[in-house]
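Quick one: co-fold with magnesium ion.
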Amino acid sequence: MAPKELNFITGNKHKLAEVQAILSSTGVRLESRAVDLPEIQGSIEEISRDKCKRAAEAVGGPVLVEDTCLCFNAWDELPGPYVKHFLTSLSAQKFHSLLAGFEDKSAQAVCTFAYAEGPGKDVMIFQGRTEGKIVESRGSTDFGWDSCFEPTEGKGQTYAEMPKNEKNAISHRGKALAKLTEWLKAET
Ligand SMILES: O=c1[nH]c(=O)c2ncn([C@@H]3O[C@H](COP(=O)(O)OP(=O)(O)OP(=O)(O)O)[C@@H](O)[C@H]3O)c2[nH]1
Ligand SMILES: [Mg+2]
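Sure, here it is.
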């Protein structure tokens, strides 16, 4: 059964703001709690499922979590789910230098939402992917690697240079939330 209200568990206020903005036109009510969840190593799906199970146990009820990956095609999809640590060490300014020795700068932003009704319940997965390339930082460096990712579907701007509504319309997160809201509509 689909929920009337989603409890989004995240420690990232930028993610939360985007999810709120994207869901605002859908009528889905969103609650949120910041819980620091340990994240395992593994495939994108394994990490998201485990994160969701831990969140459901921590909260003792229905939860939505999200894990974002940035996959370099030249790196066989790494850093993927580990991108946060690369970004923290390097900063957005030096982030592009990771691909300095590679001709192929293409990358994919991948967003995976995972929902569970409660502890021990099945986990549903909703994923969105946006193709682009890694460039020298352009635009605000407020949110993660936004200033270093230029989506192919855009007008040559990085995510950080785009107005928020334009980013949300083509972003990995927007696409994943479209699948989630489709499921909510079909179930209610
Ligand atoms: O430029 C960006 N545009 C985005 O749209 C985006 N979404 C996430 N990120 C960053 O990528 C890493 C994911 O790690 P992550 O999924 O574990 O997130 P997190 O630990 O910050 O929050 P959470 O796990 O509590 O939800 C973190 O460094 C996030 O800041 C983004 N950067
Ligand atoms: Mg995290």
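If it helps, Residues 39 surround magnesium ion (ligand 2) (CB under 6 Å).
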